[in-house]
Amino acid sequence: GIFENIKLPGFFNLGLPEIPSNNKVIVGEITTISQNDFNLNDKPFVMIDDVGEIKGTQNQIKDALLKFDVRSLYKKGIERELKRIEESRGKLNKLIVLENSIKNIHNSCLYDFTESKEALRKAVNAFLNEELAHGKDQIDAIDVYVNNALENAMDANGSLKTLVPFQLYSIKKVIIENESIVANWGEDKLTTKNPDYKKRKAIYRNAKLENKLLKSYSDSLNIVVSKVDLTIIEFKKIYDENKLQQLIDSYNVINESNYTYISEPIEIEGDEIKFNVVIKSEKLLSCNIQKETKISETYRVKGGWKVDFSSGFFVNAGNKDFYGRELLYEPIDSNTVEIRSKDGGTRLMLSIGALMHFYKRTGDDVNWAFSPGLSTTSDFDGLNFHIGLSRISGFKNRLVVSGGITFREAKILDNKFDYDKEYLKTALPEEPPTIKVFPRIGGFVSLTYNFSKFKKE
Q1: Phi, psi (degrees; rounded to nearest 5) at 160
Q2: Phi, psi dihedral angles at 378 (to 5 degrees)
Q3: CA–CA separation, 31 vs 298, rounded Å?
Q4: What is the distance between the alpha carbons of residues 448 and 252, in angstroms, rounded to a whole number?
């Protein structure tokens, strides 16, 4: 974890005891008087307390107040800086909770990546107490959070290094003064009949009690400061050992790649492939699901060239030479004739045949292919050769609509003769002279069905 080898106290005891003279101060060697009884407008200052009549000058009262205010001011300053360090400690300890939350999300067997990402976003926003998007915004906010906590603690510790010595010095002065009072009481050995006995005894008791409390306060302060010193050392480890980066790394572990399985490359020849995946847990699961999960997924193949075949009906069209000529002799007189072509009118030629389709797999229900093929008429009087484009619709069962050019062999008039020209009957053969010519070019449209076996792997 991020706090491995770092020992932070569970809490700081910031309850330093009160300074004994918080509302009582020493004025010269007269007695103890209450701050609440001070009236600096009185000249000379006169007050009555439980000891008896006490007198003091205005300057004495000011000096006493100065001593009181300095010690109280130091105490408040020390407690303020200790509170800042305690706040930083509390913030840094919250990071442990955040890191545990991140680890729990990552280790959960109930979340997919999308759910893990959303759970992470909510956990971090709850920690930061603000609404941020997953990713850089949250990482930057965590960085600011940690660095502010550390800088606040370091700054407070620097202030303590100034305040604590001054406080201990001011307390030490009072202790020395009180020790002198205690020593004088022992040396003077006043009797109960002495008129100053009660006042001097009260001063002695107060000095002795005050020193006891002041020493207790100083000891408590030194203990707290020692704990602070140890804590600051641990805080510095967060900098020195780059613990913040460890937390950010834990955050970044929840990424799509860590929720994705990538197989070795697979060479596929079919149109679709079926994956059967078995996931086994290597340890006991914290959620109520089986240790072994089987996943079966089928995917269409994309990429790679494929050859398919289809067969069906073709409709061909072209000029008269495309269909082939039926010729006859048209008599002009008893000795001469003209060569004429029978008029078949506007017509289409129906044929049946097959096409070969070359196309690149897209995995879609529609593919476009380059398609050569052959067809023949119903009386099988010759072959038609086709080249065109095809629209292949469907995935497993494919219907193909194609169009393009038809090449065929056709019978036409021998080029030694011409149409509508007079010829002597005796100069012509018995049947009109024809020759077979390839290619004659026309067009075609076809509707075919793919009969290639669907390949599945």
Answers
A1: -60, -35
A2: -65, -25
A3: 97
A4: 55
Please tell me the predicted confidence (pLDDT) of residue 356.
94
- Residue-wise pLDDT tens digits, 377-411: 888 878 999 999 999 998 777 899 999 999 998 88
For residue 195, say if its preceding peptide bond is cis, omega within 30 degrees of 0.
Answer: no
Amino acid 442 reads: G
Q: What is the chain's length?
A: 457
What three-state secondary structure class fits 267? coil
Q: Note whether 405 and 372 are within 8 A (CB).
A: no
Identify the segments of the chain with pLDDT beneath 50: 11, 21-55, 61-62, 65-66, 68-69
| Helix%, strand%, coil% for the chain, nearest 5 | 40, 30, 30
Cis peptide before 9 (omega within 30 of 0): no
278 vs 101, 238, 292, CA distance in Å?
Answer: 29, 42, 7
Q: Could you tell me the two tokens for 250?
A: 């834990």
> What sign has the CA pseudo-torsion 15, 18, 22, 27?
negative
Cβ atoms 56, 33 nearer than 8 A: yes
CB count in 10 Å sphere of residue 8: 17
What angle, rounded to 10 degrees, do the helices at 197-240 and 243-252 form? 50
Residue 307 buriedness (CB in 10 A; 0-12 / 13-18 / 19+): exposed
pTM equals 0.56
Question: Which tokens go with 97?
Answer: 């909770």
Beta bridge partner(s), residue 411: 436
CA dist 387 and 314 (Å) reads 12
Tell me how far apart the alpha carbons of residues 330 and 343 are, in angstroms, rounded to a whole number. Answer: 13
Question: Using an 8 Å Cβ cutoff, are 301 and 361 in contact?
Answer: yes
CB neighbour class for 265 (10 Å; exposed up to 12, middle 13-18, buried from 19) = exposed
Neighbours of 178 (CB within 10 A): 22
Structure tokens at 268: 């596929």
Sign of the CA dihedral with 143 first, then 145, 146, and 148 last: positive
Give Cβ neighbours of residue 92 (< 8 Å, ≥ 6 apart): 8, 146, 149, 150, 235, 238
Q: Are strands 24-27 and 31-34 parallel, antiparallel or unpaired?
A: antiparallel
The secondary structure of 387-439 as a DSSP string is: EEEEEEE-SSS-EEEEEEEEEEEEEEE-TTS-TT-EEEGGGS-SS--EEEEEE
